[in-house]
Amino acid sequence: MSSKHKGVLEDGYWEDINPEPSLSSYTRTLRWNLDFFRPLVLKRTESLHKPLRRTAYLDGLRGFAAFLVYWHHHQLWAHDATGENSILENAFGYEEKYNFACFTGIRTLFTGGHFAVSVFYVISGYVLSTKPLSLIQAGDHVKLGDNLGSALFRRWLRLYIPFICTTFLFLTCWHALGIWSAASKPEPNYGAEVWKWYTEFKNFSFVFRTGGEPWFSYNVHLWSIPVEFKGSVVIYTVLLALSRCTKNARLLCQAALAFYFMYIADGWFCAMFIAGMLLCDLDLLAASDDTPRFFCRFDAFKELIFYNLLVISVYLGGVPSQNSDIAILKASPGWHYLSLLKPQAVFDYKWFFLFWAATSLVASVQHIPSLKRFFEMRFNQYLGRISFALYLVHGPILWTLGDRVYTTVGWPKESHNNGLPRWYNQVPLPRIGPLGLEISFLLPHIILLPTTLWVAELVTKIFDEPSVKFAAWLYGKTLARSARL
Q1: Can you give the pTM of this predicted structure?
Q2: Which of 133, 207, 331, 366 has the largest count of CB atoms under 10 Å?
Q3: pLDDT digits (tens, 9 = 90+) for 397-406
Q4: Per residue in 305-325, is it b (16+ CB within 10 Å) or e — as a string?
């Protein structure tokens, strides 16, 4: 794969260690371990100063979205003890509740996890399509077949190897260390636990499963991983199907598929992936000065269009998300008339609005300089590099370390009185401040956020990056000799 189109994790981030020959093996080993486990913020690395790629803003957007998922789950976990989740997940003014955290445009910063997942899917559609679309536009169908075959072979491994490793370690900690968590119900012994994990995983990871729970009990936040794989299969299939179409026919088919998935079938996630592909196709055509004439008519209004798309994204991204009851949306201030736009096909209304919100955001970012610079900032680029691992580990850390810290400072649940009696309200802090910004909620993140980021760095190095390399190595080993030439 050309370096131009590689993701941040494939590019590598941590510099290799070149030990001095004069050092002893013990010293070299010690240095290697210190460097491996040392948080990235304590290192000097030149990679932070490398020139940004064309789509670096998407890496930053993905990283920031992963942080929103982290923040969303912490908000709901802590405020579940006080019964305030219904306030956080509903519109400003719903049932006469007027909290700053629920204000239009602000609510996403507190409970924007669903919006973030939608952004993940649009970005995935964009990124997975970049190389194949460039080959389609160049008319290189031989390399296109090689690229799609390689990508499809590696995709399951790339997504599920880190999934397998992190969830297996999490369940092992329950039995090896005796860790109690309100989010888990361990089996009587380790063997039974492993068997339950295996039977659940083999069904959960089957792409064509048609029933069963949508959650994986060992990390319920990872419901989106099978959806990510399904969306990837849709992208590769559509790319192959449209590879020999004319430019205009290809674009029209992509738009028609997005419409079909959103308005005719309840395939909201497929629509998000296809929207990402369509945006990528248009960007590549614009880069080669081959944009369809229809779009050229709006060149004089580009700035106005993209700023308006951003406003639409901010508003729709704050759609109430407590449940799928359309009656609640109709009763929410500012959403009554918008609720009438929901297609009959869509069961959970929030995904319809989040489709438009995420698509509008990804489309507008690169055309708004200040916003693009924000997502190209070093911290957002750092979050982008560890985003997948952050998504994998933030839940287990919340349910173990976070559970104990929140219980200690005054956010206990009823189950904590029995499960964590030694931690129960040991150092209660005052709940001073607006909803979602209480001092007793913010102070624990002095411990929780750095710990989560550090563990995400380790998971990136131990499982995530190696899974990318292993999948590529395995694919290479399966190729016929003639295909390697």
Answers
A1: 0.91
A2: 133
A3: 999 999 999 9
A4: ebeebbebbbbbbbbbbbeee
